[in-house]
Specification:
Helices cover 32% and strands 27% of the residues. The protein is of the alpha+beta class and 231 residues long. The chain has a six-stranded antiparallel beta sheet, covered by helices on one side. A three-stranded antiparallel beta sheet has the order 1-2-5. Helix 3 packs across helix 5 (113-143) and helix 5 packs antiparallel against helix 6.
Length: 231
């Protein structure tokens, strides 16, 4: 069994991957924010608002901040992280700033307009996939899929270097929030795992799903289409 690391207990979503946001992003609703582009290794990069960025720049970096004057950083789960950033990305004032950024060169270290919009689309697609899994595919799987159908989910695993690798799992059992299944592919960065290994993951950690039907068609994997042009 592979237990996801860096977990946090959320009052709203239960146990999930931890992420960090400044308190202003959590409490307000239409702020521009700074963060690195999400990657496979780090899907929830730290994010903070413009006011916190000014404090960071004046100090010369996070590691040089006076702890008594440092911006308030809060721990949240990955699901809350997605919801909070989507709230800011979809606010009218933030949308205007993003449109304006098309005509200006973004400061070093900030995502471009294209990448911010792209990030939003991936977050929306992933949340939509999790919602469909919980509302429709979970009860359908528990009741029993039709002959020839199979369900797969894409979930994160922590690498020895502390990063994250996303892999496909063929679902075998679904008990409460925990999904039990068989790894469908060999990982690149984890030598102790191979295709065919039995693993457990949490449904809140799922990035996407694939449902293969008996007629040879499939649905899902929309995040890969957005991120890599895969199908």
């Amino acid at each position: 069994m592979v237990e996801p690391l860096n977990q946090v207990e959320c009052a709203t979503h239960g146990r999930g991957t931890q992420a960090f946001l400044c308190q202003h992003l959590i409490e307000e609703s239409s702020l521009e924010f700074h963060r690195d582009d999400p990657t496979v290794e780090n899907p929830y990069p730290d994010a903070w608002c413009r006011a916190c960025e000014k404090v960071r720049r004046r100090a010369g970096g996070w590691d040089r901040l006076d702890p008594t004057r440092a911006p308030p950083i809060r721990l949240v789960c990955g699901h809350c992280y997605d919801n909070i950033l989507l709230r800011h990305l979809s606010a009218p004032r933030t949308l205007f700033a993003r449109l304006r950024s098309v005509f200006t060169r973004p400061p070093a270290g900030r995502p471009s307009f294209k990448s911010v919009v792209h990030d939003e689309a991936v977050l929306v697609a992933s949340r939509r996939a999790r919602d469909r899994l919980r509302a429709e595919l979970k009860p359908r799987f528990i009741a029993g899929l039709s002959p020839g159908e199979r369900l797969m989910v894409k979930a994160p695993f922590t690498t020895p270097a502390g990063g994250r690798e996303w892999m496909w799992i063929r679902v075998a059992r679904w008990q409460g929030p925990r999904i039990h299944g068989v790894l469908d592919n060999d990982p690149v960065h984890m030598r102790d795992l191979k295709a065919g290994a039995h693993v457990d993951v949490l449904e809140d950690e799922i990035l996407d799903y694939l449902l293969f039907r008996s007629d040879g068609t499939s649905e899902g994997n929309e995040t890969a289409v957005l991120m890599h042009g895969e199908r």
